[in-house]
Amino acid sequence: MHASWEIFCSVVDNYGDIGVTWRLARQLVAEYGQSVRLWVDDPSALVRLCPEADENAVRQWQQGVDIRRWTADWQPVEPADVVIEAFACQLPAAHVAAMAARQRKVLWLNLEYLSAEEWVGDCHGLPSLQPGGMQKFFFFPGFTEKTGGLLRERGLIERRRAFQADEPARADFLRSLGVEVLPGERLISLFAYENAGLPSWLTALADGSQSTRLLVPEGRILGDLQRWLAVPALQVGSECRRGALTIQVLPFVRQDDYDRLLWCCDFNAVRGEDSFLRAQWAGRPLLWHIYPQEEGAHWDKLDAFLALYLADLPPQAAHALRSLWRAWNEEGEMGSAWEAVTEQWQELRGHAERWCARQATRPDLAAGLVQFYTDWL
Ligand code: TRH
């Protein structure tokens, strides 16, 4: 079934909104042969993930996706068969009117943020009547069969495992980022918001018995790192050593290379939505810095995910990881929680691969969307 799709992305802040919509757009084109138009109000965010993109172009094609700049002065276009508003962004009123007036009916979807909370399964796929008579359906990604699934490209897990088994490929890739791993060094990647808990983690790593190389793509956490290191500035290529810890600042890499970076590491600190999921597909233990929400709403999301993720772990390992995640998100003391995690390392590592394998048996989000459209027709 061939259809035309359009995805509307308003970049609120950071890279999660564009990260998810760009990934979905590419997958619908590459794996389902769909025509996809991606509307983005801030193409400079896309350029970080896809450096070939031109932030000034009104219209451009990248990897088969028709990318349009979404500006305030909306010029009417014929709506697509399926219109996705990502994360409840507000569609142009004139476009909604055109969708309602289109002769061939339009499926209107709101793609929601990823959450493991139980209510998500009950709300997934529900319609809501809009002024003007159209229905809008809520599409929830998620971790259970009652949800719309998780973004996962075809063959992703096989590609990831092959890469992890290919030591020369891993070394070449790391070298391309300026990383030379020393024998016996543990690799950790760090992508996080500012975090007052960071110094205590860094101290634990520096004082530890195992040598660690911390790879940090350029971003918001550099200020905290710089203060702990007490250096005047950090930039791409900076490398500093304190005790058993070597910290190396990497460039912010294209989206596919960020996947490879996660695959290379023994442990990944990630944030938001998309990197959080990619770290799960990497099959390695992870630490999630959840996007903080007003009135602490993010804690329910964090606990809901932990309840699922830790369900099959022996109590000690589950306790260790939960304590680390809570300390990180409370921006609290990380030292003792990190030590407990290192004691459970093998258990957590095996579990990360099993979790990934289990989640990968379910239909992915793009498949779910295509199926939803087919069923709706
Ligand atoms: O950037 P984020 O913090 O985005 C967040 C979340 O999506 C959150 O849910 C949302 O509400 C908020 O924005 C507004 O984290 P996230 O989701 O992990 O997105 C980061 C993207 O950047 C992801 O697609 C991976 C990509 N990335 C690269 O391509 N290269 C890199 O070097 C790095 C570090 C990330």
TrEMBL record:
Keyword annotations of the record: Elongation factor, Glycosyltransferase, Protein biosynthesis, Transferase
GO MF term (any one): translation elongation factor activity
Superkingdom assignment: Bacteria
Isomerase keyword on record: no
Pfam family, one: EarP
Catalytic activity, as annotated: dTDP-beta-L-rhamnose + L-arginyl-[protein] = N(omega)-(alpha-L-rhamnosyl)-L-arginyl-[protein] + dTDP + H(+)
Family matches, as InterPro entries: EarP
Free-text function comment from the UniProt entry: Protein-arginine rhamnosyltransferase that catalyzes the transfer of a single rhamnose to elongation factor P (EF-P) on 'Lys-32', a modification required for EF-P-dependent rescue of polyproline stalled ribosomes.
Entry's family note: Belongs to the glycosyltransferase 104 family.
Identification of the protein by name: Protein-arginine rhamnosyltransferase
Organism: Azotobacter bryophylli
